[in-house]
Amino acid sequence: MPSFKTLDDLDDGQRVLVRLDLNSPVEDGVVQDNRRFDRHAETVRELADRDFAVALMAHQGRPGGDDFVSLEQHAEILSDHVDHPVEFVADTFGEAALSAIDDLDGGDVLLLENTRMCDEELPEEEPSVKADTEFVTTLAPEFDAYVNDAYSAAHRSHASLVGFPLALPAYAGRVMETEYEANSAIAEREFDGPVTMVVGGTKATDVIDVMTALGDKVDDFLLGGIAGELFLRADGVPVGRDLEGMDLFDDQWAANRETIESLLDERRDQITLALDLAYEDEDDERAEIEVGDIEEKDRAFLDVGSNTVSEYAAYIEDSDAVFVKGALGLFEDERFADGTVGVLEAISETDCFSVVGGGDTSRAIELYGMSEDDFGHVSIAGGAYIRALTGERLVGVEVLQDQR
Questions:
Q1: Contact at 8 Å (CB) between 147 and 19?
Q2: Which of the residues 31, 60, 294, 371 could staple to 73 if both were Cys, CB 3.0 to 4.6 A apart?
Q3: Is 385 helix (H, G, I), strand (E, B) or coil?
Q4: Is the pLDDT score of 243 beyond 80?
Q5: Other residues' Cβ atoms within 10 Å of the Cβ of residue 28
Q6: Could you tell me the sign of the dihedral formed by the alpha carbons of 220, 225, 230, 236, in that order?
Q7: Does residue 297 sit in helix, strand or coil?
Q8: What Rg do the C-alpha atoms of the chain give, in angstroms?
Q9: CA distances from residue 20 to 86, 114, 173, 349 in whole angstroms, order as listed
């Protein structure tokens, strides 16, 4: 049973204010469609079908950024996913917004303007402070209930996420419900067999925090990506050369060397490092080299090698649960997708509980023609996923739980 109220606890036909996370890539001013629209469409479609009058809130970018744009395009994209009209008003809680909200009938859906265009939205403050903002005190009286479906933003103490649950009866949407259940499983569930975690990506601190927090929950950590090379460096392998114009290794090594060396020493029996690595040869083709044959730091490595994929797949096949955080290589380049895709394919073919998340890792599933149905859960959360794994505070979840 969820630790907060869900849509199952909400009586039909009410006026509801719903927070989504539709934050998306923007290319040349054009908002890009992505899985967040499809996921949130489930909640919006259900509310419309149950005769709720629905007003939606969401954010896009940050002030000053190239991706800080209006949500007008988001309304069109979401409408296609919901297969239901989603109207838009270029206002968040002013007269135009209040008038559009007042005109809502059962089954209507309205998207309000970018919440981050409100001065009171962004500063990280306690929920009680956010609940007292003009943003919240103006909008809340227009509704019977508040629904938070933005799990991927649940680590942010912003007005639209933590203020309204103190002013209205608060419920979790379907994305919030499923993300919380899956991402909390590693801390809350008991598994009969081995628990394996595939950890990669570009941030050493994420990997360190996950391994430190979950050392007693995970049997095997399989490493790759930038973080994996830093652990290999700690093991005496001369790797970790940056591509031109990039600085992913040396600064992280200087900041985290002692911690990485300590983790490797203390958890050696839990940590599996790459056996081989892939790089771009003189003909711009993929080439591989055994880790033991690397004599100097003279090239950039962009993926784990085929022997590593085979070894990691063997661990996965014997696991009762597998969690993925971060990619094992530069999977956006097809030449260096073997590690990430190979591990994901092994998970999809194994009868285990699985959660895939962390940054853009889950995007590889769609990019390489795999089906999300072959995984237990594919998370659309980044920062919130990491915090769930490491047991850090998710204030957007806490305010929902406080109303249970």
A1: yes
A2: 31
A3: helix
A4: no
A5: 5
A6: positive
A7: coil
A8: 23
A9: 13, 11, 9, 32
Does residue 153 share a domain with residue 257? no
At 264-287, the pLDDT tens digits run 999 999 999 999 999 999 999 999
Structure pTM?
Answer: 0.88
Contact (Cβ atoms closer than 8 angstroms) between residue 40 and residue 102 = no
Model confidence over 43-63: pLDDT tens digits?
999 999 999 999 999 999 999
The CATH number for 305's domain is: 3.40.50.1260
Summarize pLDDT for 115-126 with one digit per residue, the tens. Answer: 999 999 999 999
Pair 59, 86 in one domain: yes
Token couple for 18 = 């719903």
Q: Which domain holds residue 304?
A: 184-370
Report the DSSP beta bridge partners of residue 26. 31
3-state SS, residue 340? helix
Compute the distance between CA of residue 120 and CA of residue 107 in angstroms, rounded to an integer.
30
Contacts of 174 (CB under 8 A, 6+ apart): 6, 7, 42, 43, 46, 149
